[in-house]
Specification:
two-stranded antiparallel sheet, single chain, seven-stranded mixed beta sheet
Length: 397
Amino acid sequence: MRRIYEQRPYPAADETALTDRSWRLAPMEWIDALWKPGRSVAAPGRILVAGCGSGREAFQLSRRFPQARIVAVDFSPRSIAIARKLRRSAPEMRNIRFAVADLAGRGFTAVAAGAFDFISCHGVLSYVPEPARVLVNLRRCLAPGGALHLGVNGAEHQSVGARRFLPAFGFDPAELQDTPRLRKLLQFCDAILGNRGSTRLAKRAAVHLAGDLFGPFIHDLPLSEWIRMAAKAKLHFHGSYAAHHALSRASEDDLLALLMPKSRPELSELVETLTPAGFHRLVFTRRPVDEPPWENQQALLAWQPVRTRLYGSRLPRRSDSWQALRNVVFSSPATNTRVDYRMPEWELEILRRSNGQRSLAEILKTIPVTVPTDVLRQQLFVLSQLLVIQVLPNRVT
C-alpha cells in the first residue's frame, strides 16, 4: 500500500489543492447538528486530518476554520512533502502542521500530540490493513467532547463488482495496469451500471483508480460492521449522512411517526437494510448518545429541546389561533434538503422557545391550550429525526 501511494500521491498533487472548495466530507452543519446542536457553537480549536494525502482536505478545513490549529498526517513521505510544498505558497495556511505517521502505529498519538475537538478520517480506513487499530488510535486522540467524522466504503461500493469482474479478463485487482484495454473494459462496466458524469470509472484518473478500485485489498463493509468495529474502540455512533437523506425523503404523510421510539442509530441501520450505501459518512463521539425517553411522558417533559443550525427556517409570526395548522418550510442549503411541514401554532411556539435552556415542561406552561401528549411526543420525535431539533437531557442537578 505504501508503494502504491508513493507512486501516485492522492488526491491530485497540484496547486488546485489550495483553491479547491468542493467539500467532500459530510456538511459541517449536519455534523454539528448531531454533535453539538444549538444556535451559537464554538468552532473546533484543534483539528486532526487522519490520512491527509497531499493536503487537499486539510487546506479546505483551514479555509473553513482559519483560527483552528490543524494537524494533518499521512503514512506517505512523498505526499507529506508535496503538502508542505503547497502550504509554503499559501502563508494564510500556516495553521496546518503536516507530519508523517502510520495511523495504526503505536507511536501515532505521540506524533499527533494532543487531544482534538474534531477528527476527520475520510476515504482512508477502507484501504488500511487493520482499520480497528486505527479507530483505537483515533479515539485516544479525540477530546472528551470531540467528534470523529468517518468516511468509509459501504457494501455497495462500486469496487465490489468491478474487482470480481476484471480478473475474468486477465487484470489483477491488486495492481493497476492502466492500458487502453482496461479503459475499454471500464467503459463496459459504466454502460452496464449506468454510470454517468463523475461516477464513470473509465474517466477516472489513474490516481483515483489506484486507490478506489485497484490495490491489495479494499474493505467494503456494511454500516453494521463499521459501527461494531468503532464500538470495540469505545466510539459511539451518532448518525449516517445517507440515512439522514433517506429519512428526509420519507418526511411527508407522517411516515416517520411510524418509527417511534427507535433511536437515530437504530434507524440508520434499518435504512441500510433497505438501501445499502456505497459510501458511508458517519459521526462518532466518545460520549454515548443522549436518547430521549419517547415512551415515558413524564421523563420526557424534563428534557430540553434546542433548534439546530442545520435548517435556515423562518418561523411565521405568532397567531392567536393555537390549533390552526400552518405551513412551515425547513430548508438546508448545506444538505440540499427541504421539508414542507404543517403544524399547529402551539408546536410553532415550542420551536420558538427551543433554545436548550428551557425544559419541555417549562415551555408548555407558557402555552394557554392543552397540548395532546401523544401528538406532542410524535411531533417532537419526527422533528428530532429530521434534525430540526435535538432533545437533550437537563444536566442541571
